[in-house]
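Next up, sample data.

:::
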Amino acid sequence: MAERLGMPAEMYASGFDEGTHGVRPLDALFDEVARDDVVLLSYSIFDPYLERILALDCRKICYFHGVTDPQLLRALEPRTAQLCEQALAQLPLLARFDMVVANSLNTAQSLAGNVAASAIRIVPPVFPDMYVFRREPPHKSRKRPAPNLLTVGRVVPHKRIEDGIGILALLKQCEFNATLSIVGSTPNYDYLKFLINHARSLGVLEQVDFKGMLDDADLFECYESTNGLLAMSRHEGFCVPVLEAMHYGKPVFVRGGTAAHEICPPDCVFDAEAELATWVAPLMQRLGQAGGRCSVDMDYVKHADGVLQRASDEVWSTIFAAIGVASAAARSPARPHAAVAAALHVAKK
């Protein structure tokens, strides 16, 4: 995006695979950043570099993804819970950035008392030109022997995958046979073991497919061949899979109370505290209408396109302009150019 706006860009990170193309060690940033540069920090968990970045003599933007409630992690991920607690203690420091950009209104509201609402812009954490969004939805529907539900994202406790398995069991009790595909990395062995045992105890293990990490082609195949996306998470700063599923014209069934409900039609959202049984009738009705076919609903495609426009290059151009940085199109010959240095502290929740 920065390069499209005529601004040279460099990426720096900590805790990443050193073979990753185009990414440099974060320590190098402090030797190389110049006064006319802009540093954009991606923040979602405790960052030991935060005060050093704030001390840099340049303009700085914080892109804030939200911090997961430590209580959602404490039982099975105590170390991550501790890092999230430390992150919450760091939030007042974010007010020292020249601009804070949040990935959703829900995330912005979590900064109340730390950063003034008027100082926060909201921009989704995606770009319209990302490969997944440049792919056209399939033109033909597919036939499945049984309706399929899909979850996409890391398989970690606050995603509440067990609730999706519980819904699958309730559908089976109603003699409505469906399957559940679970796509995502499984960094927590204890949680994965719990999910397998939970599915077995409910009698639906054979209907659950743990697919793990997938490449793009296989992920796109999952979107094309599902009847709907299930999002049961108790914390989402945005929830990109909901947007991806809608781009593929698929219905989404989303637990409310997180940012995920901001990006989908209201009739797709379930009350955050509703019993799982509440989900059964609407899912049976919607999945039953498909008659086993994985059809494409263009209303979802159009809705996704509307969300994507909130993250256009033009939106980012106005953010840079607000902190005194002009894009190539708006820059006069007399003004110095600025480079963008993206700093990513990689410690995923």
Remarks:
- The domain at 9-126+312-345 is CATH 3.40.50 (Rossmann fold).
- The longest strand covers residues 9-14.
- The CA atoms of residues 187 and 275 lie 28 Å apart.
- Residues 332-337 have pLDDT under 50 and may be disordered.
